[in-house]
Amino acid sequence: MIVETSYKKILEKIEAADVIRYAGSRNYIDGAVTYLSPYISRGVISTRQVLETVVSAGFAPNTIEKFIQELAWRDYWQQLWISYGNRIDEDLKHTQPKSERWGIPANIVQASTGITAIDNGIEALYSNGYIHNHIRMYIASMACNVARCHWKIPAHWMYYHLLDADWASNALSWQWVCGANSNKLYYANQENINKYCYTNQRQTILDVDYEQFGQLAIPELLNNTISPIFTTPLPQTVAPVIKPELPTLIYNFYNLDPTWRNEDNANRILLLEPSVFKKYPVSEKSIAFCMALAKENIPDIQIWVAEFADLKAIVPGAIYFKEHPLNKYAGHEDARAWLTNVKGAYPSFFAYWKKCKKELY
Length: 361
Fold this sequence. Notes:
single chain; alpha/beta; Serine Threonine Protein Phosphatase 5, Tetratricopeptide repeat; DNA Cyclobutane Dipyrimidine Photolyase, subunit A, domain 3; five-stranded parallel β-sheet; 15 helices; Deoxyribodipyrimidine photolyase
């Protein structure tokens, strides 16, 4: 994956998306995935913007349904976060089945599970901040359903390293895999991994028939668990220069949209709140990516590591920000560009999608 920070290059990525081949190939390690998730997660582009771009290129929504569904999944997880708030930090629907331990298997963190596709995926996560969605599911299944660890520490580990870090998508997807946010557990055996990752391994800890998973003892390889401490290395900054006669626009880790109020003459502040990153830590690479997107695409932006209360104390005028469930700001909230107008917590994705389709088609 080549990580771009130029808005022009990001728009070119949308235009280059192979939305027809996407449906049939996305589960394969070399499938026609778009690599747009880091930019959607950081709020540089929106799901609505992606949809409008591909439709304007001549693709009718009903011919690219799987592609649009994947955009809808992102909005669906965000709607659950808005509706449930901190409840998504815990088992949402059910107590996690098979949850016997806290921590994460050390061999997963060390990329030494013995399963080539998984270990290569973890190494790629560390090096470039991205991991294929199928590999994410394999890892979650191994950590939670095979090693029987509670999902939360492993989910924080993955979120920490992802450039497309989206806590709702990450936490709720882990819960979907482990049965805390779904009605069954997801398993993948070695045969499945070989198929989608073009490997030919045998005699690994996952080289079993599916009916064996329910009775499988924790493999010795996954016995040793650790509980890593994650901290976010935030930069040293100084208080921004505020022009009191101008409104102030707050950007943050989830809103780096260069088109947002771009005609306004305003103070533009990328606010990195230590309290947010204490609760949801991310890596130095993730913070660097965030700052690079801001500096390259948002003219005159000032970066400040501080809490909203600190900013409020030095801003005499109006404050504007975009809606997000993490925001605890006071001021004028602008709506996000959602894929559809469907809002609220639906009991399942497909109940939500059914409503979306009525609007989209």
